[in-house]
Amino acid sequence: MQTPRPGEFEAIERHFAPLAREGRFAAFGLRDDAATLSPRPGHDLVLTADALVAGVHFRAADAPGLVARKALRVNLSDLAAKGARPLGYLLCLSLARDVDDGWIAAFAAALARDQAEFGVQLAGGDTTSTPGPTTIAITAIGEVHAGCMRLRGGARVGDEVWVSGTIGDAALGLAVLEGRLAAPVDARKALAGRYLLPRPRLALGLAAPASGVACMDVSDGLVQDLGHVAALAGCGAEIEAGLVPLSDAARATVGGDGRLLDVALSGGDDYELLFAVASSRAPALAAAGEACAVPMARIGRLVEGQGVAIVDPDGARRRLARGGWTHF
Amino acid sequence: MQTPRPGEFEAIERHFAPLAREGRFAAFGLRDDAATLSPRPGHDLVLTADALVAGVHFRAADAPGLVARKALRVNLSDLAAKGARPLGYLLCLSLARDVDDGWIAAFAAALARDQAEFGVQLAGGDTTSTPGPTTIAITAIGEVHAGCMRLRGGARVGDEVWVSGTIGDAALGLAVLEGRLAAPVDARKALAGRYLLPRPRLALGLAAPASGVACMDVSDGLVQDLGHVAALAGCGAEIEAGLVPLSDAARATVGGDGRLLDVALSGGDDYELLFAVASSRAPALAAAGEACAVPMARIGRLVEGQGVAIVDPDGARRRLARGGWTHF
Question: What pLDDT, in 10s, does the model give residues B300-310?
Fold first, then answer.
């Protein structure tokens, strides 16, 4: 049953103003035109923005709480890659016409939960109607010690390629959710959960070295994203397929099916951290993983040339026809 | 004729990366996950976000350059109200399926023009497709001297209400553009232009006093927005209709039609600055207007009670049934 939707200002007052109460921003209960932030001396700010569109980045029927948390977390994942401590975010929410008050309430309640978990606050934004699909644009703000944002650029031929956690769960999970893949019963929930609710690697992001390491988060697929790191370095990359960390659920689902392994390697929504690091610095990176209890795996290296090659356990080298997800 | 749309990364590289080159943010050619900003010592940052949806906030057929500039300028207008100097913005652009490369190119070229005019840069964002209407969410960032953001709150009963420029042009202009209003030929272009291309009052925003003054920009209609200032102050407000500054075009269009005057008073998209100021501080505010060559007009005052009353030249007091624009 639909609960009537409140007016714009009532929705902000009731559902979103409570999210703006505590934190580093002065947000004036969302009753002003803007929020203000006093930067900490000796720190830089880090800013990133990502939008999610129903039917493109999430399914319109997904639970509003999961949608809210995914929208926030994909932005926090970018801050994690940069080694930033998240401070807050601004939210532009364009609501489809069938969204009711219950949906908004659940959306906001889930944000409250994630705010507590990640130490961020809502600092502002905009709420509007759209005749199209619900669209959520978030700008997230974090801070780093001055000059210490970890970059995506600066990698070199010979660097080792490392990745956190496990790869491919979300892509397999989406296929399960869409009925395109019959995964083992035990695996279905784990895989779908990885698609529906990313876990930004913020602790690892803070613990990992800020210099001598190139980093980005894996959002558009491992192969495509590693391609970006390599292209910025003016070189290519190799992934040893047998070294790519798969979860038990992914392993049971992929089995010996090379096509499914490629889904794992090229699908999006992992939200793990991808590093290129000189061998001499790799122990520091591995130690950061240990300190945060995040598994880290060396999966390949940067090589002369261009593009990303997959090296199968039998030594065969190949390239994926489709490198990853593009939102166009 | 449609020009084929480029891929996501090509569109960013070709059209948007050039917008990120110069300014206070290090944006890495939009090839990193985030931008970084080194705050100036002794300054606070001011952050605001507003989204525009085709069919809601602009007409899908509007020229892409006007849409781009409006999307940026409505955010700059919020910074103007806060007395902030704009630094840059992040852009989440969700493009309808019929948007082609020519549209994107014109959109980006117009942003380049406004960036030069207002001294801002693109600092990041996201470009995606949507099955719905084109949606533009912008987060703008500015700076003020520490502790000097001008607030919307803090006004008091007895404060004078002042407004910059002229009121109602944009609302009348929209009615003209939609064929709902037959304005004099000479007036049509001037009114439509005010709807299509706001002029954020940044110079006035910087020159006006930061303290002892409450301020917001007039975006949802004078009556509704003044109602927000009054509500925050826990009081009501009176507008003397005869004192509200109308442009020649608006005056010629309204004539003696009280209904059209109410459209001017309650319509949105003025993007003028609205101040509540103690009489003792009003001369400083008027002087700021003079220094910037922006006409300033005293139009009413804050009074005991609640809500906004219109006082007509004959002394009759009335309230508008519909106070202003809501986006729900």
Answer: 999 999 999 99
**pLDDT-above-90 percentage for chain B:** 91
Buried b (16+ CB within 10 A) or exposed e, A177-190: beeebebeeebbeb
Each residue of A38-86: pLDDT tens digit? 999 999 999 999 999 999 999 888 999 999 999 999 999 999 999 999 9
Q: Are residues B40 and B126 in contact, defined by beta-carbon separation less than 8 angstroms? A: no
Query: What does the pLDDT look like over B46-83, one tens digit per residue?
Result: 999 999 999 999 988 899 999 999 999 999 999 999 99
The answer to whether the CB of B73 falls within 8 A of the CB of B197 is: yes
Q: What's the mean pLDDT in B149-170? A: 97
Q: Enumerate the residues of chain B whose CB falls inside 8 A of the CB of residue A49.
A: 90-92, 124-126, 137, 139
Question: Are residues B130 and A94 in contact, defined by beta-carbon separation less than 8 angstroms?
Answer: no
Which residues on chain B are in Cβ contact (under 8 Å) with A28?
A: 151-153
d(CA A83, CA A45): 11
Mean pLDDT of A297-319: 95
Choose from B30, B36, B138, B144 for mutation: most chain A CBs within 10 A.
B36
Query: Does the model's ipTM exceed the 0.90 cut?
Result: yes
Burial of B17: CB neighbours in 10 Å, binned 0-12, 13-18, 19+? middle
Q: Residues A146, A41: contact at Cβ < 8 Å?
A: no
pLDDT single digits (tens) A39-49: 999 999 999 99
The amino acid that residue A43 corresponds to is: H
Distance from chain centroid for Cα A158: 27
pLDDT classification of B323: cutoffs 50, 70, 90: low
Provide the β-strand partners of residue A121. A88
A8, A33, A37 member nearest B45 (Cβ): A37
Nearest Cα residue in chain A from B144: A36
Q: Domains, chain B, ranges and CATH?
A: 8-145 (3.30.1330.10), 160-318 (3.90.650.10)
- Choose among A6, A35, A78: nearest Cβ to B33: A78
Closest to A266 measured CA to CA, from A327, A323, A192: A323
Rounded percentage of chain B residues whose pLDDT exceeds 70? 97
**SS3 (DSSP) at B98:** coil
Output the DSSP codes for B205-264: HHHS-SSSEEEEEE-S-HHHHHHHHHHHTTSEEEEEGGGS---HHHHHHHTT-HHHHHHH
Phi, psi of B311 (to 5 degrees): -105, 110
**Judging by beta carbons within 10 Å of its beta carbon (0-12, 13-18, 19+), is residue A2 exposed, middle or buried?**
exposed
Per the CB < 8 A criterion, the answer to whether B142 and A93 are in contact is no
- Of the CA atoms within 13 Å of residue B293, those in its CB half-sphere come to 0
Nearest one of A147, A13, A12, A139 to A88, comparing CA atoms: A139
pTM of the model: 0.95
| The token pair that represents B190 in the structure block | 């001037």
Sequence letter at residue B187? A
CA dihedral A245, A162, A203, A248 (to 10 degrees): 0
